[in-house]
Write a structure and sequence with these properties.
The protein has helices at 24-28, 63-66, 77-83, 132-144, 175-180, 189-207, 263-268, 273-289, 305-309, 316-319, 333-346, 357-364, 372-375, 385-389, 420-423; strands at residues 73-75, 92-95, 100-106, 117-123, 153-159, 162-168, 213-214, 223-225, 231-233, 240-241, 250-251, 255-257, 270-271, 430-432. By secondary structure, it is of the alpha+beta class. The protein folds into two domains: 55-169, Phosphorylase Kinase, domain 1 (2-Layer Sandwich); 170-372, Orthogonal Bundle (Transferase(Phosphotransferase), domain 1). The strands form five sheets. The protein has a six-stranded mixed β-sheet with strand order 1-5-6-4-3-2. A two-stranded antiparallel ribbon has the order 7-10. A two-stranded antiparallel ribbon has the order 8-9. A hairpin with a 5-residue loop joins strand 8 and strand 9 (231-233). It starts with 23 loop residues before the first helix and ends with a strand. 42% of the residues are buried. The structure holds adenosine-5'-triphosphate (ATP) and magnesium ion (MG).
């Protein structure tokens, strides 16, 4: 499947809703910038943030016209109030870095032709860490990309300083909530693999688009689940166009979430699609173990999931010790071995030896079956990096099994000491700590 293409033409812009500049201050207070018309672009390609980032120009296109082919609705603030019953607390779904999320409802009484459906409305917290840039990035990417494994953006609101996003409602919330919430029913093996395959397909679609996209924020809380557990990627605020032509990577300020961001990206700021593959490996580990990527309630040695789990992944006998006890043994052993070997490869320190997302999809697809016989014989081939990565590696005695799901929601806000020096450099000012 390829990205939906659309034609965009010059139009009028809502007065406070225009061009992204490099300085965050300009983004957060766009009305302080002089409004200049930009050159008309009529080419038939996906409009991206870089198309709008000429510091000498402002985005004068009305997004509702620019993104016409996407059928996005540009709602007014008054309409948003109707949709969410004035952001009533009874409709509150949760809150992340962007701001609060409320459930709402739209139908054609609100806008002609609008399908009657539940929606989730994200409201930018004007005092929060994100701003106009993340909002615009999200509108541009999700407004133009359509895929069964990407959450559908229905519309947006851009009025004065207010920025909102309206998505299809995902009844089962985030994978994070389903996997780690203390009183949630445990996800079955097949469901976990279904989620892994679907999310992998979403990433593969982004990486293989005509104009490739690096998602940059792949994590359990950004994978939303439909009523039948079909996963969809949400939160495109950090997404970025992939390298073009002869470029091998994109150089950026490091942004993302601790515990999921690839080590080479954290160290150098060099971003490739393989950074997403690493993050996918982390989520695959979370699905296999039922443990969070970073869990400060555990003993020091078990706090970082990747470091803790890596030695178990290539040993069939040891692997069962780290499989989520909430599965109560109801999983395919061969499937778990294959998935663990795949996670190991995705988490390689050498980005070039990580598999691409299409390979990940192909490897995972047969694993949704619970029946070992249907998965076939498992043959693990140790990737060459094994020797390079762990010189003198000795298998460690596995730690005693700890109870899962001890982490409370407040842990999300706890600061971690790991990588402290690196993380505190200006290059890393965008890394979110959990
Ligand atoms: N389309 C949606 N349908 C249903 N629930 C949603 C939807 N979008 C977000 N939510 C819920 O809203 C809450 C906040 O989501 P949000 O994406 O803003 O933050 P987050 O992913 O938890 O954190 P972060 O800021 O790090 O991405 C989550 O609990 C999520 O399940
Ligand atoms: Mg999110």
């Amino acid at each position: 499947m390829t990205a939906a293409k659309m034609k965009w033409t010059c139009g009028l812009v809502p007065t406070s809703c225009y061009k992204v500049a490099d300085e965050p201050a300009d983004l957060l207070h766009p009305s302080s910038k002089p409004k200049k018309p930009v050159s008309t672009q009529t080419s038939f390609h996906r409009l991206s943030l870089s198309d709008l980032s000429n510091p000498n120009s402002t985005l004068s296109e009305d997004l509702s016209i620019s993104l016409k082919g996407s059928n996005l609705h540009a709602f007014t603030l008054a309409e948003m109030r109707v949709i969410t019953q004035n952001f009533s607390s009874s409709n509150f779904l949760g809150e992340g870095g962007f701001g609060p999320v409320h459930k709402g409802f739209v139908d054609d009484k609100l806008r002609h032709g609008l399908k009657a459906q539940s929606v989730a409305v994200k409201l930018l917290d004007l005092d929060g860490s994100q701003g106009h840039r993340e909002w615009l990035t999200e509108v541009l990417f999700l407004g133009q990309l359509r895929h069964p494994h990407l959450v559908k953006l229905i519309g947006y609101c851009c009025e004065d300083e207010h920025r909102l996003l309206v998505y299809e409602y995902m009844p089962r919330g985030s994978l994070e909530n389903q996997l780690f919430r203390r009183f949630s029913v445990s996800l079955s093996w097949s469901t976990r693999m279904k989620i892994a395959v679907g999310a992998a397909k979403g990433l593969a679609f982004l990486h293989e688009a005509e104009k490739p996209v690096i998602y940059r924020d792949f994590k359990a809380s950004n994978i939303l689940l439909d009523s039948d557990f079909t996963p969809k990627l949400s939160d495109f605020g950090l997404a970025i166009d992939g390298p073009e032509g002869d470029e091998t990577h994109v150089s950026t300020r490091v942004m993302g979430t601790e515990g999921y961001a690839a080590p080479e990206y954290i160290m150098t700021g060099h971003l490739t699609a393989m950074s997403d593959v690493y993050s996918f490996g982390v989520v695959l580990l979370e699905l296999l173990t039922g443990r969070r990527s970073v869990d400060t309630t555990r003993t020091k040695r078990e706090q970082n999931l990747v470091e803790y789990a890596r030695p178990f992944l290539n040993d069939a006998r040891k692997l069962t010790r780290i499989i989520d006890p909430r599965l109560e043994g109801q999983f395919s052993e061969k499937g778990a071995q294959k998935a663990a070997a795949l996670a190991y490869q995705c988490l390689s320190h050498r980005p070039k030896t990580r598999p691409n997302m299409s390979t990940v999809v192909k490897t995972l697809e047969p694993l949704t079956a619970f029946d070992d016989a249907s998965i076939g014989t498992f043959v693990y081939t140790a990737p060459p990096q094994q020797q390079h990565e762990k010189p003198g590696y000795r298998p460690r005695t596995p730690p005693p099994r700890s109870p899962v799901n001890r982490q409370s929601d407040s842990d999300r806000n706890r600061r971690r000491e790991v990588h402290k020096n690196v993380m505190n450099s200006p290059l890393h000012s965008g890394v979110r700590r959990r």
